[in-house]
Backbone:
C-alpha cells in the first residue's frame, strides 16, 4: 500500500529530477568560482588558495576594456529599451487598434523566437544595405531590437492587470490624461519597467550572436573577447572575471525578485 | 459659461449610443432634480453602465446632451465636470494612503495644504473612517475601502455623485451596513446622486426614484413604491421581485364581478375588484400578483369558498422570517409569501395538501405585453 501523502507534497522522484537539473546548472559555475581562487594556471589539484588571478584581472589581463565596453553598451541599450518599450506598451494597451496591436506583438515575438543566429545575419544584411554596415550604432540597434520585446511584454502585462477604473477615478477627480499617467499609472508600472530594464541589460550583455555579426573589426565586447580567448587558451583571470559576473548577476536577480517579478509570470522570479 | 445652479441637477436628453451596430442606448432621457437620489436599475447589458460612463465623460455619446447644474457638459472632459464617481471595485490608488487618495482631487484643484488637511479630516469623519489616514487600501476591508472611495468622491464637493454598483463587491452583512451609511451620507450632504445597480432591493431601499432600463431603453420611472406596486409590464414586474402571472377572465356576476382562472370561478376581494374595474377590462386579462398579496390556508371540507381558489401544495421553503409556499392552482405554479406567526404551522405542510388561496391585490398588465 502506498502511503497517503499531502497532495501538495513534492514526490521523491521530483526531488531527484530537480536535484540533477540544478546540479547541471550550478556545478560548472561552482567549479569556475573555485578555480578562480586556485593557484594552478591549468586548473590542476591540489587546491591552493590565492587571490592573484583577481589581481591579474585588474592589472594586465586585457579583459577589463571589453567588460567596460559591454557594460556601457548594455546600459545604453537597456535605458533605450525601457523608454521605447514602455511607450510601446502604453500604446499597445491603451490606444492600439486590434490590427496594430497584432502587428506589434508579432514583430516583437519574432525578435525573441527567431534564432538570433538568423536574426544577426539578417541584421548584418540590412545594415550593409542601408549603408550603416558593422559598427557600434548597428550593434546598438540590433541589441535594442532583441531587448525591446522583454520590456514591452512585461510592462504591457502590468498595465493590463491595472483596473481601468483607476484611470477613470483620477480623471473624474480632476487629473488630465497626462497627469493621470504620471501620478497613477506610472508609479504602478514602475516595478515592471525596472524589471524589463534589468532583463534587457542582461540579454544585451549576453547576446554574443548579435554582437558577433554587427561588431566592426577591432571592437571587442566581453563575449567576443572570451570567444577569442577560448580558442587560443586562457588564464584563470577569466575565471576571476566570471566569478565577478556571477556575483553581479546574483545581485540583479535579487533586485528582480524584490521588484515582484515573481508575480509577472516570467522566468527570473522566485 | 453660464452660472451654475446645483438645484437644476442632472438632465440627460435623448442620449444614443451604438457599439458595433448594437444600440446600447436608444434615446434615453432622464432628469434628476438637485439633491435627489435616483437609481438606474437594469440587468447586465441594459446599458445602465454605459449611461453612467456617458454622464461621467468616460465615453462619448453618439447623440444627445448631458446638462449638469444648467450647463451643457456633453463635450466636456471628465476632469472638468466636477462629478464624483464611486466604482464597483473601489478603484482606490493602491500606491497612496487613505488620506493621499482622498486628497488627490483637492491637489488637482490646487487647494492649499491646510485646507486640504481639514477637508480630508472632515470627510473621513463623515464616512466614519477617522484614524485610518495612513493605511494603504490593501490594509482595509472591502467595506472600509468603499467608505474611503465615497470620501474621495465627496471631498471635491461634486455637482453630482455617480455610484456604479457600489455595493455589489461586498458580502451581505457589510452590504447592508454600507447601504445604510450611503443613505445617511447622501441625505447629510444633499448631493445629487445617480446610482447604477442590478439589485432591485438596493434600488428600492436607497432611491427617491427608480428608473428601470432594459435593452438600452427606459421602461419605467417612478418612486420605489410605485414601481414595485404598479409595474407597467411583465419585465419590470419580474425584475423588481418574484411575481405570479395569471391569465384570468372577468365577467359580471350576481351582485358584482366574477373572475375565472382555468376552470375555477372566484369572487375577487374588494381591493382586487377595484383594480380590475379601474383597468376597464372585461374578458381575458393578465394579472401580476406579488407573493405577499396572496394568502393561503388549509382546505376545510370539499367545497371551496366563493372568494378562494382551490390548489395543491407543491413545496414549502423555510427562509427564516418568511416562508415561501409553492402552490399549484389550475396548472399555474404560484409562490406565496407567508410571514410569522403562520410560519410554524405552514412549515409542516406536506406536498399534495389541498389549500385555499386568496388574491388580495394585483396589477393588471396589458395582455399585449405577454411575450
Residues:
Amino acid at each position: 500500500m502506498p502511503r497517503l501523502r499531502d497532495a501538495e507534497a513534492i514526490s521523491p522522484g521530483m526531488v531527484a529530477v530537480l536535484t540533477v537539473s540544478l546540479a547541471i546548472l550550478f556545478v560548472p559555475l561552482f567549479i569556475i568560482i573555485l578555480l578562480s581562487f586556485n593557484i594552478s594556471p591549468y586548473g590542476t589539484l591540489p587546491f591552493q588558495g590565492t587571490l592573484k588571478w583577481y589581481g591579474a584581472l585588474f592589472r594586465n589581463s586585457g579583459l577589463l576594456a571589453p567588460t567596460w565596453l559591454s557594460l556601457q553598451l548594455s546600459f545604453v541599450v537597456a535605458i533605450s529599451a525601457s523608454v521605447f518599450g514602455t511607450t510601446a506598451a502604453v500604446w499597445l494597451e491603451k490606444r492600439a487598434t486590434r490590427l496594430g496591436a497584432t502587428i506589434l506583438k508579432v514583430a516583437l515575438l519574432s525578435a525573441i523566437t527567431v534564432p538570433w543566429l538568423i536574426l544577426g545575419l539578417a541584421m548584418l544584411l540590412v545594415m550593409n544595405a542601408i549603408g550603416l554596415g558593422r559598427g557600434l550604432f548597428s550593434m546598438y540597434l540590433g541589441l535594442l531590437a532583441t531587448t525591446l520585446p522583454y520590456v514591452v511584454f512585461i510592462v504591457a502585462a502590468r498595465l493590463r492587470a491595472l483596473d481601468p477604473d483607476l484611470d477613470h477615478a483620477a480623471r473624474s477627480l480632476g487629473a488630465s490624461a497626462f497627469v493621470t499617467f504620471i501620478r497613477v499609472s506610472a508609479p504602478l508600472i514602475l516595478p515592471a519597467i525596472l524589471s524589463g530594464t534589468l532583463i534587457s541589460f542582461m540579454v544585451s550583455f549576453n547576446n554574443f550572436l548579435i554582437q558577433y555579426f554587427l561588431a566592426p573589426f577591432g571592437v571587442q565586447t566581453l563575449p567576443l573577447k572570451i570567444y577569442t580567448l577560448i580558442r587560443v587558451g586562457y588564464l584563470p583571470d577569466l575565471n576571476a572575471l566570471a566569478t565577478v559576473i556571477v556575483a553581479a548577476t546574483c545581485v540583479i536577480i535579487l533586485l528582480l525578485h524584490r521588484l515582484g517579478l515573481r508575480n509577472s509570470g516570467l522566468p527570473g522570479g522566485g | 459659461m453660464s452660472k451654475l445652479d446645483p438645484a437644476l441637477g442632472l438632465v440627460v436628453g435623448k442620449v444614443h449610443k451604438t457599439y458595433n451596430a448594437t444600440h446600447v442606448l436608444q434615446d434615453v432621457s432622464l432628469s434628476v432634480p438637485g439633491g435627489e437620489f435616483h437609481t438606474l436599475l437594469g440587468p447586465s447589458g441594459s446599458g445602465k453602465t454605459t449611461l453612467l460612463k456617458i454622464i461621467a465623460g468616460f465615453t462619448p455619446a453618439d447623440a444627445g446632451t448631458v446638462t449638469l447644474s444648467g450647463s451643457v457638459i456633453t463635450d466636456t472632459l471628465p476632469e472638468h465636470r466636477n462629478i464624483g464617481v464611486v466604482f464597483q471595485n473601489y478603484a482606490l490608488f493602491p500606491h497612496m494612503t487613505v488620506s493621499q487618495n482622498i486628497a488627490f482631487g483637492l491637489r488637482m484643484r490646487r487647494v492649499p495644504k491646510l485646507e486640504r488637511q481639514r477637508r480630508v479630516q472632515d470627510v473621513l469623519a463623515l464616512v466614519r473612517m477617522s484614524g485610518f489616514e495612513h493605511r494603504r487600501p490593501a490594509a482595509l476591508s472591502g467595506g472600509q475601502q468603499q467608505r474611503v472611495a465615497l470620501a474621495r468622491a465627496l471631498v471635491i464637493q461634486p455637482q453630482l455623485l455617480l455610484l456604479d454598483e457600489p455595493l455589489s463587491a461586498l458580502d451581505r452583512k457589510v452590504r447592508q451596513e454600507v447601504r445604510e451609511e450611503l443613505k445617511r451620507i447622501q441625505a447629510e450632504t444633499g448631493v445629487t446622486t445617480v446610482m447604477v445597480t442590478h439589485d432591485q432591493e438596493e434600488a428600492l431601499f436607497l432611491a427617491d426614484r427608480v428608473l428601470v432600463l432594459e435593452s438600452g431603453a427606459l421602461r419605467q420611472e417612478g418612486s420605489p413604491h410605485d414601481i414595485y406596486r404598479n409595474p407597467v409590464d411583465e419585465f419590470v414586474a419580474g425584475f423588481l421581485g418574484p411575481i405570479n402571472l395569471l391569465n384570468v377572465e372577468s365577467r359580471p356576476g350576481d351582485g358584482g364581478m366574477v373572475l375565472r382562472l382555468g376552470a375555477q370561478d372566484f369572487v375577487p376581494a374588494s381591493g382586487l375588484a377595484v383594480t380590475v374595474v379601474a383597468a376597464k377590462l372585461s374578458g381575458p386579462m393578465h394579472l401580476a400578483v406579488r407573493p405577499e398579496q396572496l394568502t393561503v390556508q388549509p382546505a376545510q371540507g370539499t367545497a371551496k369558498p366563493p372568494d378562494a381558489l382551490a390548489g395543491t401544495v407543491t413545496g414549502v421553503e423555510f427562509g427564516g422570517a418568511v416562508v415561501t409556499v409553492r402552490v399549484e392552482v389550475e396548472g399555474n405554479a404560484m409562490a406565496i409569501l407567508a410571514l410569522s406567526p403562520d410560519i410554524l404551522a405552514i412549515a409542516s405542510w406536506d406536498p399534495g395538501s389541498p389549500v385555499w388561496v386568496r388574491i388580495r391585490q394585483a396589477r393588471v398588465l396589458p395582455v399585449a405585453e405577454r411575450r
Remarks:
- Confidence is low (pLDDT under 50) at residues 262-270 of chain A.
